[in-house]
């Protein structure tokens, strides 16, 4: 399993659905009157509680379906930087978070532990709905090569050390190609030095 987004595995599906609906309907966060997320009870126990910031804001956000929905609506495709404590606590997300409800729905158990239903009501009274049974990245819904490359690029862009930030696109492609067929870890070491 490869997660498409940098959050809990059971937030992957609802994040994908938010992005799908936003793209299909040119939906902006300020046009969302309310959103309702339905998850299987297991997933709801992990990520369905009302969002609050605790001792570890990054993890609090990564394990909150409501926060992941608000983040995707406001910022688009989730990035590692979105989960930095200051970005998690960004007050501009609060009004949107208050319009998102996450419910446990035992009927979704029959569809799998990553099943999710999403309903968004817009300020002009449209009802936008989407559902899925298997979240992206899980067996049966594997990521496309372009999605893997996007994840890799996100990780390189977010790296804390100066060297990866200075990597050229050609260097990044060489590093990614080496990872795909690596037979000796020593080959990797030379590519990790900018």
Keywords, separated by commas or semicolons:
194 residues; alpha+beta; 60s Ribosomal Protein L30, Chain: A; 2 domains; 4-stranded mixed beta sheet; 4 strands; 43% helix; 13% strand; globular
Can you give a write-up of this model?
The protein is of the alpha+beta class and about 190 residues long. It has two domains: about 10-130, 2-Layer Sandwich (60s Ribosomal Protein L30, Chain: A); about 145-190, no CATH class. About 45% of the residues lie in helices and about 15% in strands. Strands 2-1-3-4 form a four-stranded mixed beta sheet, with helices on one face. A hairpin with a 4-residue loop joins strand 3 (about 115-120) and strand 4. The two termini are about 30 Å apart. About 30% of the residues are buried.
């Amino acid at each position: 399993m490869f997660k498409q987004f940098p959050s809990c595995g059971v937030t992957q599906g609802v994040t994908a659905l938010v992005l799908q609906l936003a793209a299909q309907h040119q939906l902006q966060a300020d046009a969302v009157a309310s959103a309702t997320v339905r998850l299987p009870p297991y997933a709801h126990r992990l990520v369905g509680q009302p969002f609050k910031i605790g001792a570890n804001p990054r993890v609090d956000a990564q394990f909150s379906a409501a926060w992941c929905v608000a983040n995707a609506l406001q910022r688009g495709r989730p990035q590692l930087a979105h989960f930095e404590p200051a970005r998690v606590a960004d007050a501009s997300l609060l009004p949107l978070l208050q319009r998102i409800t996450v419910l446990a729905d035992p009927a979704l158990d029959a569809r799998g532990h990553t099943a999710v239903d999403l309903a968004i009501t817009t300020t002009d009274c449209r009802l936008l709905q989407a559902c899925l049974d298997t979240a992206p990245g899980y067996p049966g819904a594997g990521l496309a090569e372009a999605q893997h490359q996007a994840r890799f690029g996100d990780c390189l862009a977010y790296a804390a050390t100066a060297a990866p930030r200075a990597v050229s696109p050609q260097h990044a492609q060489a590093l990614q190609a080496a990872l795909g067929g690596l037979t000796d870890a020593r080959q990797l070491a030379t590519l990790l030095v900018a």
